[in-house]
Structures are given as C-alpha cells and as structure tokens.
Specification:
Strand order of the largest sheet: 2-1-6-5-4-3
Radius of gyration: 23 Å
Number of helices: 6
Oligomer: single chain
Distance between the termini: 78 Å
Structural class: alpha+beta
Largest sheet: 6 strands, mixed
Shape: globular
C-alpha cells in the first residue's frame, strides 16, 4: 500500500512539473492564431458579432456631423468618445489588399494588434484594436471611424 501511495505521489509531482514547464497543457488549449481569427472575423458576420466587446469604445465622425440642435432634440450625445452598440452594428470588412488608394498597416504584439486604414489627404481613417483576452481568443476592443 505504501508503494502505491509513493507511486501516485510521484505521478502527481510529475504532472505539476509538466504543467509548470508547459502552461498550455494545463489550460487545455493554445492561443488563437491572429491571422486565422482575422480572416474569419472579416468573412463571417455571426463570428464577428461574437468577437466584439459591446458597448465598443471608439469614435464615429458621423455623429459629429449631426447639427447640434437636431442632436439636442433627439437625445443624441455628441462626444469624442463614442460607444458602438450591438443592436446598431453593421458587418464590417477590411480593405482589399490590392486597393492602392488605401494605406493599410498592422501593428502587432503578442496580445494586441492595431489595424490602421487611411486614404491619404482625404480625411478618411479607420483604426481597430484587437486584443487577446484571458480565454486566449482575439476580440475587437476599439473602433475609430473618421470620414470628414
């Protein structure tokens, strides 16, 4: 009986050491690959909605273009910080990589990716921030839209 307890203890200690050396083994899954997420995010509207944290902070220049008196009478808040709502969300796509009018840039780290889309000298700019959260999946966490 004592040998069985020693054997179980050795197995348990080995398992703990293995989990410390390979944290992915203890979580049960590896982090999502950003490129795979990115392709699916822009091609599947249901998936896109599931990977946005609402209300989504950002900026919407269309709100700034509403006349002040109309905004006041309809209860629209014209603030620089804008929150996109799930019920008003429209499926978004990224720029075509072959489009020479739009300058596209991805700034990447292990847990944050910033996508910038700009049409130079036009007043058009989009910035999206994607973040890997604790569940090891990517989410859109910020959306800046300017078209002036």
């Amino acid at each position: 009986m004592k040998q069985v307890n020693i054997f179980i203890s050795v197995l348990f200690i080995g398992f703990i050491i293995a989990c410390k050396l390979n944290p992915q083994a203890s979580s049960g899954f590896s982090p999502e690959v950003f490129e795979e997420f990115y392709d699916k995010f822009y091609s599947d509207s249901t998936f896109q909605l599931s990977r946005i944290i609402f209300p989504l902070p950002g900026y919407n220049s269309d709100i700034d273009q509403i006349p002040d008196d109309f905004a006041e009478n309809t209860g629209i808040k014209k603030e620089k910080e804008y929150y996109w709502k799930k019920e008003e969300w429209q499926f978004i796509k990224t720029a075509n990589v072959n489009d020479t009018l739009i300058a596209k840039k991805l700034i990447k780290s292990d847990t944050l990716v910033i996508e910038e889309l700009i049409i130079p000298n036009s007043g058009f700019q989009i910035e999206r921030k994607f973040k890997m959260l604790d569940d090891k999946k990517w989410y859109l966490v910020y959306y800046f839209y300017q078209n002036i």
